[in-house]
Every structure is written in structure tokens, then in C-alpha cells.
Amino acid sequence: MTKVVAFFQPGWADWEAGSVLALLREYFGATISIATPDGGPQTSIGRVRAAADAAFADIGPSDADIFLAICSAAWPAFHDEAFFALIREAIAADKIVGAICAATVAAARAGLFEGRAHTSNGQGWLIGHAPGYAGIDGYVDTRRAVTDGRLVSAPGSAPGTFASAILRLAAPGQAAAIDANAAMMAREWAALSIG
After folding, report:
1. What is the pLDDT, as a whole number, of residue 32?
2. 14-48: per-residue pLDDT in tens?
3. Is 7 helix (H, G, I), strand (E, B) or coil?
4. Residue 190: per-residue pLDDT
5. Cα-based distances in Å from 48 to 13, 68, 92, 163
6. Tens-digit pLDDT profile for residues 125-140
7. CB-based contacts of 36: which residues, under 8 Å, 6+ apart?
8. Pairing verdict, β 3-7 and 66-69
9. What contacts 122, CB < 8 A, 6 or more positions away?
């Protein structure tokens, strides 16, 4: 069974966690654990209170197959070498690592973008929060998630493609179901008329 650890900071973004975690659990049978900086509950932007299963420091690279850093305004001020080492070790162990929106700052500071294509909330934005990060030349200016190997990065505007990219890595044999879910979400936006 696929094991997932999602890292929630204070004010985690409900809409970025919602699709990916629900799909992993409901359609692919994954077990989901929530880790927070201190192991205590964290409240989302939408005031959803999530109980934690562990503190960041309690998690090791062998504890999951997928590690997901979900957006929060707390990530830009977050400097934790143990956490950065954890996600480096997870990538080195061929685990899936995903970072979306402000959580891409942690991925940049950890050195995960060195030699890899990646994205965030804008190149200038990422440089502003992680000056001189390794791999800056691999930045892709896009509104969609970017996958390079087992690493997925995404801007905050791309929770749908972030979820799809994670699912494609986690369940490559389920491409048809993943594509069908992505197409269902796309139809909503295709029908939207902004005048």
C-alpha cells in the first residue's frame, strides 16, 4: 500500500491538499499521514483544523513513498536543515516528492532543484525567497505543475495538475483514470465564461 506524508504548516492551503490527498486515498488506496512542525494540529486558511500524526522531526525517508509539502505562508520564513535533509534523502531514495506554491521555497533551499526542471509562483518570487538557490537555470515559467524525475513542483494556481502529476508517478498503470479525472476538472474551467 502506498504511504503518503503531507507536511502542513500553519495556514495550510485547503485547495492544494484537497485534490491530491483525496484522490490518492479514495481511488488509489494510499494511507495518508499528516506531519506538522511541532506535531500539534494546524488550521488551514479555510479554518479546517487538521490533527497531526507526527512532527516533522519524527519523519524519516523510509516512512513514506510520497512526501508532499503543501503551501502555507509560513514556508518562506522556514529554515530547518533537518527537514531539508529529509526531502533530499527522500529524492535520493527514489521517493516521490511534491512541493506546491510557497512550499517550493523549502525545495529550493534543500537543493532539490539543482539539475532539475521546476516551477513556483514566479521565478522572481522564488529567487526573492531563496536567493542564489542551486538550479535556478532550470526554472520553467508555467501555470502548470512540472515533473522532473520523481520531483513535482507547482505554482499555487495549479492544484489540479499538481494532483495529476503526483498520481501519474504513484500509479503509472492508472493513466486512463487519472486522465479522466483531469478532464472532468478541465471541463468546469472550459465552461467558465469571464466577461
Report:
1. 98
2. 999 999 999 999 888 999 999 999 999 999 999 99
3. strand
4. 73
5. 10, 18, 33, 20
6. 999 999 999 999 999 9
7. 7, 8, 9, 42, 50, 52, 55, 56
8. parallel
9. 141, 155
Q: Which residue has the cell 530547518?
A: 80
φ/ψ of residue 42, rounded to 5: -130, 145
3-state secondary structure of 6: strand
- Using H for helix, E for strand and C for coil, what is the string for 73-100? CCHHHCCCHHHHHHHHHHHHCCCEEEEE
- 3-state SS, residue 173: helix
What type of residue is 49? R
Instruction: Give all domains of the chain, ordered by start, each with its CATH number.
Output: 3-190 (3.40.50.880)
Judged by phi (left if over 0) then psi (alpha if -120 to 50, else beta), residue 78 lies in beta
CB atoms within 10 A of CB 88: 16
The three-state secondary structure class of 37 is coil
Backbone angles phi, psi at 31, to 5 degrees: -95, 135
Scan for cell 472532468, then name that residue. 184
Question: How high is the pLDDT of residue 93?
Answer: 98
Low-confidence residues in the chain, pLDDT < 50 = none
User: Model's pTM, two decimal places?
Assistant: 0.94
